[in-house]
Amino acid sequence: MTKLLTSLAALVALFAFASNASATEITSSTGSTPTIHSESEGGLTFHAVVDVTCQKSTASGSVESHGAGVTAKGKLTTLTFTECGNNDVTVKNAGSIESHAVSPTGNATLTSSGAEISVQVTSLGITCVFTTSNTHIGTYTASSQTVHLDAAKIPRTGGSVFCGSSGEATGSYKITHPSSLSVH
Asked: How far apart are the first and last CA of the chain?
C-alpha cells in the first residue's frame, strides 16, 4: 500500500521540474531535457487496513512533453520499493505523472494516472490493489527539489474489500539526478 503512494510520489518527483505551464523547456545543467531520478527520504508509509512502511524507494523517467502552453508530463521507466517489512509489493504499472504550476517559483501540484500497485499484506493474508486515475498525489517544492506526498487518497481497484475503498500515502522524495534542473 505504501508502495502505491510511494510510486506516485516518485512520479511526482520525476516531473516536478516540469511544473511551470508557461515554461518553454526543462533542462539540466548540461542543457538537455533530463532523465530524472529520485529516491525516498526515509520511510514512506501507506495508511489503509494497516500501515505499510517501505524504507527505500526509487523512481526514474524522462520528461516526454513540456513547453509553452503544454502540460509537463511523462512516464516512469523504473519504480522500486524495498525494505517493506514482511509485505510483498508489486508494481504492475508505474503510470504517468503530470505537473501543474502553482506559482512562478517553480512549485507544482502533481497528479498520477495508470500507476497500479499490488500490496500483499502477509500478516492478514490479503492483497490490496490500488490504481491512480488523474489522482492528486502531492506537491513539488523547487527550492529543495523535494516531492511531498500529501496523504493522497488512491482508489482501491482490486483485492480484498478489507483493504477499504482507498489508501493514503505520506513521505517524500528527493531528486538525485540531475544535480540541477531549470524551467525557462
From this structure: 36
pTM confidence score: 0.80
What's the angle, vertex CA 140, arms to CA 143 and CA 73, rounded to 5?
120
pLDDT of residue 127: 92
Whole-number Å distance between alpha carbons of 112 and 136: 7
Return the sign of the alpha-carbon dihedral for residues 166, 175, 70, 63.
negative
Residues in the chain: 184
Task: In whole angstroms, give the CA distance from residue 87 to residue 1.
Answer: 9
Question: d(Cα 111, Cα 5) in Å, to the nearest integer?
Answer: 11
Question: Phi-psi category of 75—alpha, beta or left, where left has phi over 0 and alpha has psi -120 to 50?
Answer: beta
Total domain count for the chain? 1
| Alpha-helix residue ranges (DSSP H) falling in 99-165 | none
* Residue type, position 43, single letter: G
What residue type is 143 in one-letter code? S
Give dist(CA 143, CA 124) in Å, integer: 41
Domain that holds residue 171: 2-183
State residue 33's pLDDT score. Answer: 64
Number of neighbouring beta carbons within 10 Å of residue 154: 26
Distances (CA, A) of 149 to 57, 138, 170: 13, 4, 5
**CA–CA distance, 182 with 116 (Å, rounded to integer):** 30
